[in-house]
Design a protein that fits this description.
The chain is an alpha+beta fold and 81 residues long. It has one domain. Helices cover 17% and strands 32% of the residues. The protein is built from one helix and five strands. The protein has a five-stranded antiparallel sheet with strand order 1-2-3-4-5, with helices on one face. The protein is globular, with a radius of gyration of 13 Å.
Length: 81
């Protein structure tokens, strides 16, 4: 499994663009379909309100939604789109 977030906040999985973006806001992590010709912006409800998108090895607090969890949830979201 391979998750990347580029400098324009686009989510890539296994080196492929997903058409999704991500941003961190005060109230949580927002995943959205990026607007482009023929495709409108749409926000997507995720299983966790906030994800820590840094390295999983830095996470020590139990119950925190990690980068690995974010990747799994994005893959599940893509199956529904």
């Amino acid at each position: 499994m391979s998750l990347q977030i580029d400098t324009a906040d686009e989510i890539l999985l296994d080196g492929q663009r997903t058409g999704l973006g991500v941003t961190q806001r005060r109230d949580g992590t927002v995943v959205y379909t990026r607007e482009r010709p023929g495709v409108r912006y749409a926000g997507h409800k995720m299983p966790h309100a906030r994800y820590l998108l840094g390295s999983d090895s830095l996470i020590t607090k139990p119950g925190v939604a990690t980068r690995a969890q974010f990747e799994a949830d994005v893959r599940a979201l893509l199956e529904t789109l």
